[in-house]
Recover the amino acids of this structure.
């Protein structure tokens, strides 16, 4: 093994060196677990120690950051869920059985609809096993370094060890200077409102003919910022602006897809699972949020989502529980109707089996699903890419957490392509639905420092 060059390494470097020296390559991949101080996930991202990064942070719970890549998985087409699951099983077979590592990534909303220049770096499905994984839960944290058997055998571990040492030293160090506060002046560009009105009219006509029951129409807003804003700063602000949402980011060494999701697609531990049906929207502060509970249109929209979710889960579940009435899910800018669903599976299953069965929900596509997807592919002006797709993590036991990638966009330097949608049902009004898409982007734009 090559020694570290002088000057003498810091305590963090010595700790990493000793751990690597003690490692034995009994499997193709070896995981080295190091104790680490608890810092925010955004702090670690803001250090800029790796161009390839993954980030997934649950409100008041688990925070995860992945830096660098040891293994990558990708897939295309209708079989992409099954393909990723099979590739993941092969990757985890390379690790010791006791490993608690995760793969991070996600899926495009639709197969064949991530071909544009904006979405090409992410593909239709992409997951990664990070070189370094930082895991924080409350006041405890750990850092896991992954090295290959070949690297250990050949002594080719300097780069990996140096990255781990730098991360440890930074985590033990003092708080750095605050990240840039905002973007200053910004220019927003969006499709003409008449296009939106025409599309809503066409959807309502299809509903009247019985072709659709509901369709979720999405739109893109392009933002040119006055200055580049680091993704870590946006996520740091989203912690404050969207404290009830799951924050996520995926950076493949170029554009960064990030957001704050208000809706969990599915969480699975063993045979226990949790999901939720979220739909209906009202702007917080503009009118009483209780209006949602009194709105027949919003109640119908949310009921459609719940019925489809329960129907999809029924063949896999031994038991399913949910409240008889929806609750209010009040965020900073928008409130929704939500029904939480819990249950037990009737067999051991991989989380991606549930993801594939549940995606896309009527909350992001429509009913009937296939007709809604066809309409979206034929009529929406911009590819959704990963917007409204499932993003999250999975482990070697087939457990995982996935959210619906809403309130999101692609940040690249000083530009953002932000996406939002609205559910169109019988009785929807084009202007109010257009306004709804703007509310939904409020937290992301505020996090960028954009004045609206």
């Amino acid at each position: 093994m090559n020694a570290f060059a002088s000057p003498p390494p810091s305590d963090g470097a010595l700790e990493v060196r000793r751990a690597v020296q003690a490692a034995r390559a009994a499997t193709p991949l070896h995981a080295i677990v190091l104790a680490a101080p608890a810092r925010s996930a955004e702090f670690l991202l803001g250090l800029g120690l790796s161009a390839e990064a993954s980030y997934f942070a649950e409100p008041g719970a688990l925070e995860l950051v992945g830096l660098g890549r040891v293994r990558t998985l990708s897939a295309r087409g209708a079989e992409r869920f099954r393909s990723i699951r099979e590739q993941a099983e092969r990757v985890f077979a390379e690790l010791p059985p006791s490993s608690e590592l995760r793969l991070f990534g996600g899926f495009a909303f639709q197969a064949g609809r991530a071909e544009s220049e904006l979405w090409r770096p992410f593909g239709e499905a992409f997951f990664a096993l990070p070189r370094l994984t930082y895991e924080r839960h409350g006041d405890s944290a750990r850092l896991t370094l992954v090295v290959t058997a070949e690297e250990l055998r050949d002594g080719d571990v300097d780069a990996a060890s140096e990255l781990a040492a730098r991360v440890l030293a930074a985590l033990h160090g003092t708080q750095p200077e605050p990240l840039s506060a905002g973007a200053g002046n910004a220019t927003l560009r969006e499709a003409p409102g008449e296009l939106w009105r025409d599309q809503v009219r066409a959807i309502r006509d299809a509903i009247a003919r019985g072709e659709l029951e509901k369709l979720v129409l999405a739109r893109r807003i392009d933002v040119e910022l006055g200055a580049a804003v680091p993704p870590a700063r946006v996520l740091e602000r989203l912690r404050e602006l969207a404290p009830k949402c799951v924050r996520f980011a995926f950076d493949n060494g170029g554009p960064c897809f990030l957001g704050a999701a208000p809706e969990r697609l599915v969480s699975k531990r063993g045979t226990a699972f949790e999901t939720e049906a979220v739909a209906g929207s009202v702007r917080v502060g503009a009118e009483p949020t209780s209006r949602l509970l009194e709105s027949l249109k919003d109640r119908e929209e949310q009921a459609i989502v719940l019925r489809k979710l329960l129907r999809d889960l029924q063949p896999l579940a031994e038991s399913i529980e949910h409240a008889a009435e929806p609750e209010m899910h009040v965020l900073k800018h928008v409130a929704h109707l939500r029904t939480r669903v819990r249950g037990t599976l009737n067999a051991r299953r991989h989380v991606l089996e549930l993801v594939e069965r549940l995606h896309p929900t009527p909350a992001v596509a429509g009913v009937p699903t296939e007709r809604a997807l066809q309409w979206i592919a034929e009529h929406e002006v911009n590819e959704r890419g990963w917007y409204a797709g499932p993003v999250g993590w999975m482990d070697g036991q087939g457990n995982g957490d996935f959210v619906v990638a809403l309130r999101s966009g692609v940040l690249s330097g000083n530009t953002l392509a932000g996406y939002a949608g609205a559910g169109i049902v019988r009785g929807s009004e084009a202007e109010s639905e257009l306004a709804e898409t703007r509310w939904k982007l409020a937290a992301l734009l505020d996090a960028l420092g954009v004045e609206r």
Notes: The longest strand covers residues 214-225. The chain has two domains: 11-172, 186-447. Residues 1-10 have pLDDT under 50 and may be disordered.
